[in-house]
Write a structure and sequence with these properties.
This protein has 231 residues and is α/β, with parallel strands linked by helices. The protein is 48% helix and 12% strand. It starts with a strand and ends in a 14-residue tail after the last helix. Mean pLDDT is 82; it is low at 224-231.
Length: 231
């Protein structure tokens, strides 16, 4: 399957550079470019892009508002691409807001080419891009300034089972399905089943939103050691 990509960035050289790098991949087709969020929405819907690389800060309409409109389209609009936010800084409040809007993750603009290509493929496959070293730091930084309600970490969220709560905790730590399976000593398919149930019970679009929910619920708190699963 060829992944249809739109690149939205107000810097011409950055936008063209990303487009060229992605177009060099046999399984990726850059079907459009745009210099601001408003145009990005038009191009994305017009080309039925699978993935939109969206800069955070742009004139006329920023990436956050554009992501909101793409991911929560008006009645009659069925196209809903995956959105990967692009940012210059590793700590950016707008990216946190984008995760709330339903973006599948974010990537630093100076990321290596291989990481950019990998990110597009991961998001197109329906996963979320959650690099533990950056994403967790981002969410914890914002959560310190927007404290989540203080709750007992053992409280089940929306009827989660104890095992589902364990899985959610490990997702919030940035672990992949394979890593969670190894930690809990279960089959990876079992973890995927728990993930499906977490999405359904919590109403989350993807892994990124599960992480946000874990922090906001108080299951994981900034500055507090993560409780070990099963404790």
């Amino acid at each position: 399957m060829v992944i249809r990509v739109v690149v939205v960035d107000d810097q011409d050289m950055v936008r063209s550079g990303f487009a060229a790098l992605l177009s060099a991949q046999s399984d990726i087709d850059v079907v459009g470019e745009a210099s601001n969020g408003r145009l990005g929405i038009e191009v994305s819907r017009g080309t039925h892009a699978d993935v939109v690389l969206m800069d955070v800060r742009m004139p006329e309409m920023d990436g956050l508002e554009a992501a909101r409109q793409l991911l929560d389209p008006p009645p009659g609009v069925v196209h809903r691409p995956k959105v990967l936010m692009l940012t210059t800084f590793d700590i950016d409040d707008y990216v946190y807001e984008a995760l709330h809007a339903g973006a599948s993750g974010f990537l630093l603009k100076d990321a290596p080419v291989a990481e950019l290509v990998h990110a597009v493929r991961v998001i197109a496959a329906g996963e979320a891009l959650l690099a533990p070293s950056v994403t967790r730091r981002l969410i914890e930084d914002v959560a310190r300034r927007r404290p989540a309600p203080r709750r007992d970490p053992n409280v089940r969220l929306n009827g989660l089972t104890p095992r589902e709560t364990e899985v959610l905790l490990l997702v919030a730590q940035g672990l992949s399905n394979a890593e969670i399976a190894a930690r809990l000593v279960v089959a990876e398919q079992t973890v995927k089943t728990h993930m499906t149930r977490l999405f359904a019970k919590l109403g989350a679009r993807d892994r990124a939103q599960l992480v946000v929910m874990a922090y906001e619920s108080g299951l994981v708190a900034p500055g507090r050691p993560h409780p070990a699963p099963g404790t």
